[in-house]
Amino acid sequence: PIYLDHHATTPLDPRVREAMLPYLDTFFGNAGSAEHRHGWRAQEAVEAARSKVAALIGARPAEVVFTSGATEANNLALMGSADAAGPHVITTGIEHASIVACAAERERRGDPVSILPVDREGRIDPAQVAAAIRPGTGLISISLANHEIGTIQPLAEIGILARQHGILFHVDATQAVGRIPVSMPALGADFLSLSAHKFHGPKGVGALVVTRPARRHLRPILFGGGQEHGFRPGTLPVPLIVGFGAAAAIAQAAMPEESLRLAMLRDRLLDRLAALPGLRVHGGTRFRLSGSLNIGWPGLVARDLIHLLRDDVAISSGSACGSAVLHPSPVLRAIGMTEEEALGGLRFGLGRFTTEAEVDRAAAAILRAAPLLRR
Ligand code: PLP
């Protein structure tokens, strides 16, 4: 099937694979072995990758803490800052499951949590963040780009607010990194989560980037050896980290052209699909990732269409984590859609290797199938 689910994950770039291969066998050393060449070689590779990852987000290499992915990075940010800052957490109603679950766990442990609403485009209003700040607010956690509707948030304004009030600011940039320019200093973020597999790197590796001044407000959630400044103990997965670095460098170089190409393909897809009357675009069109499109038709249940098209097109009705059961996307509900409307949300995510021909074939398949299912 034509793969149009790049929010869930992306295929490995062949260049990333090439970069990783030597570290799967020839250079198998432990990056923590300081006493021999095997270790040095691995350590050099890790540090080179660290620099590439840092460069992609305008951070310093020493600020990168490698993790198993963004879920772990989010856990480290939300659970690891639990005792250091004030107890009150501010987040939004459209966050990824890993943020939702960490916020719920903080609440269960007795910390107050404010979940802010978003508008029909999925945008958070900085004024609402300002209004939610109170004595004891310790952490604001907001994603830069949404994983279902692609909405990009006005985070720089919120970063300024956080700074003014001495509140830690965590940005889950997992969907944004590699797709739009991300600068940690420009966002004013203290902590930033990212994951390699969202931009054609390998699965199972990501990072929490922790600015130098914010370091003293973070405590580890795992305990062991002193790796990653003690924030993330455990032997580093050298091949994955090398792949992460390669993917970061490629994304950084490809981004300007790629984002334009994806926007054109996305508009082409929308244009084709609009041939079936009643199409609605969910979330806004003004502040959106260029490869993202979330749509629906009245009376069409997304799950039915996705199932019918399973041999032709791989799309989804929401985030991969919650897909096992039929429930309306909390993101679509949060932007004001009814339960029935939300069950109609079809998420398309285009990526580096998506072609015009694929977009046309996918649209044609959908246009054939959708009328059969509309109630
Ligand atoms: N945050 C966002 C916004 C995501 O889209 C994802 C995707 O799965 C994650 C976090 C989790 O990332 P990972 O798969 O690396 O755990």
UniProtKB/TrEMBL annotation:
Keywords: Iron, Iron-sulfur, Metal-binding, Pyridoxal phosphate, Transferase. The keyword Cell membrane does not apply. It comes from the Bacteria. Its cofactor is pyridoxal 5'-phosphate. InterPro entries: Aminotrans_V_dom, Cysteine_dSase, PyrdxlP-dep_Trfase, PyrdxlP-dep_Trfase_major, PyrdxlP-dep_Trfase_small. Residues 2-361 form the Aminotransferase class V domain. Pfam families: Aminotran_5 (PF00266). The keyword RNA-binding does not apply. It catalyses: (sulfur carrier)-H + L-cysteine = (sulfur carrier)-SH + L-alanine. Gene3D superfamilies: Aspartate Aminotransferase, domain 1, Type I PLP-dependent aspartate aminotransferase-like (Major domain). Transmembrane segments: none annotated. Belongs to the class-V pyridoxal-phosphate-dependent aminotransferase family. NifS/IscS subfamily. Catalyzes the removal of elemental sulfur atoms from cysteine to produce alanine. Seems to participate in the biosynthesis of the nitrogenase metalloclusters by providing the inorganic sulfur required for the Fe-S core formation. This is Cysteine desulfurase.
